[in-house]
Amino acid sequence: MITEFRQAVLPKEVRSLAAFDRKVFSAADVFPPSYWKQCEAWWMLIDRRKAGCCAFQRDTDFTEDLTFTDNPKSKGTLYIATTGLLPKYQGQGFGALLKAWEVAYARRHGFRRIVTNTRKKNVRMIELNRQFGFMIVRTTPRYYAEPTDATVVMELLLKKS
Ligand SMILES: CC(C)(COP(=O)(O)OP(=O)(O)OC[C@H]1O[C@@H](n2cnc3c(N)ncnc32)[C@H](O)[C@@H]1OP(=O)(O)O)[C@@H](O)C(=O)NCCC(=O)NCCS
Description:
This protein has a single domain (about 5-155), classed as Gcn5-related N-acetyltransferase (GNAT) (Aminopeptidase), CATH 3.40.630.30. By secondary structure, the chain is α+β, with helices and mostly antiparallel strands. A hairpin with a 2-residue loop joins strand 2 (about 40-45) and strand 3. The longest helix has 15 residues, at about 95-110. The protein has a seven-stranded mixed β-sheet, with helices on both faces. The protein has helices spanning about 15-25, 35, 65, 95-110, 125-130, and strands at about 5, 40-45, 50-60, 75-85, 115-120, 135-145, 150-155. Coenzyme A binds near residues 85, 93 and 96. Coenzyme A binds near residues 82, 96, 128 and 131.
């Protein structure tokens, strides 16, 4: 089995990212094309097939749940905006592999902190983040719609190597 990570070419691959997103998330949670263009997105390929995807905003904090405006710049913080696997690749340890790669990416690029957020109902993602040392920073009610749910904001502080 060959696992590779390839940066998505933007804006060329926006349609492909949006199509992938629709297979992973419910309609209420997919990103609009304009948001993909603000991100740095990466494909996780398993035996050359697109199995997973994650997207970052570099030097950016996540505060949208509090301010309802764009996330502010924050040097040294990597915001992981999304992490997802196609259903057929879920539950086999690939999520842990993708998370390990995200953390390695942050260390490799000198980030001091990672921030991410997910639905409160998404126990799988919250537990996966916990396994990697992420701590809950806050839970903001009614951030998501359809169905209404809180967002759980988590961070991982990275030590300097
Ligand atoms: C969330 C997601 C990335 C996790 O990846 P995965 O491959 O399914 O998860 P893994 O098989 O690697 O399991 C990782 C850990 O999650 C936790 N986990 C998995 N299923 C769980 C469940 N039903 N309840 C609680 N924790 C669970 C466990 O801690 C597990 O580790 P363990 O097997 O050592 O106990 C994947 O399920 C996914 O893409 N889901 C849809 C998209 C999504 O919800 N993304 C997050 C929002 S940004």
